[in-house]
Design goal:
With 209 residues, the chain is α+β, with helices and mostly antiparallel strands. The protein has seven helices and eight strands; from the N terminus they run αβββααβββββαααα. It binds iron/sulfur cluster (2 copies). This is Sulfite reductase, dissimilatory-type beta subunit.
Amino acid sequence: MDELHDEFITENMPNRVHMSTSCCQINCGGQADIAINIQHTKPPKINHDLVANVCERPTVVARCPVAAIRPALINGKPSLEVDEKKCICCGACFPPCPPMQINDPENSKLAIWVGGKNSNARSKPTFHKLVAAGIPNNPPRWPEVATIIKKILHVYKEDARDWERLSDWVDRIGWPRFFELTELPFTKYHIDNWHGARRSLNASTHIRF
Ligand code: SF4
Ligand code: SF4
């Protein structure tokens, strides 16, 4: 993102823009106006030798949004197991427990989410919205990601009113216009029509940290 250095020193955006590279695919709307995050395509493989030394197992179990992680005894030692049929490959278990090895340079892609509850000044809390997915994981400079981010920032800068946060701007113009202005392809995969939450979302009363 050093390609955006000029934007940081000229401060010509309509309002502040937070960008995050650490959010997960839960897309709670967590930390930023624009979230660049890893789109995993396979469930985590567990390094059982490390779990006992590195992880607090109840924390990891509670972290999973679909209750796919269970405590287990592996070779007589306390560890964890993942129900791969339930796992949605969100990656949320990796930060509290690095032995949940889900990063995969070959198969993991990148996704960009926009908006969310920390991206507005006037409207009600919302989730991030997926705007681009399946972007190649191309280190060290991730040129495909940089191109999309610069495009989003460019149209936001041109089209938003003074002091309008990114999410408020999208609320005003509407998502169809957002995709039109940014020239990002809108596909059927952008439509959130999942209705399995009642059956599979983790409904425990654990407090998550
Ligand atoms: S749950 Fe995921 S999307 Fe929400 S703040 Fe945490 S890392 Fe970001
Ligand atoms: S937290 Fe996400 S990646 Fe980890 S087991 Fe649960 S659904 Fe799968």
